[in-house]
Amino acid sequence: MLTKFRAKMIAKLYAPHMRAGLRVLDVGCGNAVVSKYLIDKFGITLEGTDILEYLEEQICFKKMDKPNVLPYADGSFDTVMFNDVLHHTENIEALLREALRVASKILIFEMGPSGWARFVDRFANVFIHKDMPVPLNFLNKQEWVELLAELNCKFQIEEMRRPFFGYPLKHCFICVERKV
Ligand SMILES: C[S@@+](CC[C@H](N)C(=O)[O-])C[C@H]1O[C@@H](n2cnc3c(N)ncnc32)[C@H](O)[C@@H]1O
């Protein structure tokens, strides 16, 4: 139920950037429930990739051999998405550079730093995915601005409102585009 709720939240955010046939790479797609929801909703052509493989939905998928290397040729996609993935990675900048190699646009749905965010990740690591890296690499808005400035791209960062009163997590939406 929570996964569907997240999928709907992400779809609403990404809607202005989606169109039928758009070639999308979902990095860190996890169980692919969100990926499948986006495929069905927007008619996009989506492929998933992840360092782990635990798909619950049937989508095109390639497992990553290295954490900072996307196993695709330059320009293979229009858009890369990272949904609650980057705080699980040690080197966010390297992964974003890889994303900009394979696509011209990146969409990011990412948890901000908080005690709840750390708790959720630790909990998921112990009880759901023991193999998932949990470096707790959460960035605040200023840290995102500094990191994205290094990429020499256009970017927008939107701190999202909580979807309902008492919702414990604070997300942000980031759109990064190559300069033409
Ligand atoms: C919290 S889950 C999110 C899964 C999915 N994106 C979603 O929204 O349901 C984080 C995912 O990031 C993956 N991950 C962690 N480090 C990664 C890396 N360096 N490259 C790609 N995926 C990574 C994990 O294996 C895990 O599937």
TrEMBL record:
Pfam families: Methyltransf_11. One of its GO terms (molecular function) is S-adenosylmethionine-dependent methyltransferase activity. Residues 25-103 form the Methyltransferase type domain. It comes from the Bacteria. This is Methyltransferase type 11 domain-containing protein. It comes from Candidatus Falkowbacteria bacterium RIFOXYC2_FULL_48_21.
